[in-house]
Amino acid sequence: MPLLLQLDSSADTRDSRSRALTATFADAWRALGPDHEVRVRDLHRDPVPHLADAAMHWPERMRPADVVVPEDADALQRELIDELLAADVLLIGAPLYNYSVPSSLKAWIDHVHVPGMTAAGFGTEAQPLAGRPAVVVSSRGGAYDPGTPTADWDHAAPALRIILESAFGMDLTIVTTSLTLAETFPREPDRRDRARAEFAAARDEAVALARRLGA
Hints:
With about 220 residues, the chain is of the alpha/beta class. It has one domain: Flavodoxin domain (Rossmann fold, 3-Layer(aba) Sandwich). The chain has helices at about 15-30, 70-85, 105-110, 155-165, 190-215; strands at about 5-10, 35-40, 90-95, 135-140, 170-175. A 5-stranded parallel β-sheet has the order 2-1-3-4-5, with helices on both faces. Helix 1 runs parallel beside helix 5 (about 190-215).
């Protein structure tokens, strides 16, 4: 039974482009058959708290002996990691907030990125997620075109690439749609046209990816 783990982190629950695209992907996944399951975790509506203790950055065997992590915090971290490890495909909606990932998504990352458990470290090269597909839907309010002053202002995609691709060893695809604020704060008509064209292309890419990864 192929399992898709869908994470949404946008604070916009009405018009979010990242939510629209993760929903498109999930719908295409479900359409592949009744055995294609989707587990949805909404990190905005049901936020993951910040780490209760710095020791949670490390696996239990590496934590200082005098540190006691609260039981509920430890249980939640185990739940999040087990949920991730159980997924055949990971889907993340990651809107660009102040040039980085939403804090809700960062809190999730802090819980599941554990060297020696989910990522290599402490003398082990174990990467239990190595080779599994991960899809990040990156929605950006502005444009970050090469050669422009804002070309390197997107710090979300590079960070997610380091975590998912380098640390976890996952097979990462990033689906990007830009100028998502063009409809809200209209400027030149060509920006609105480009925004709509990019969103349509991203939607088609999401469907194609779901069909390919769920086949």
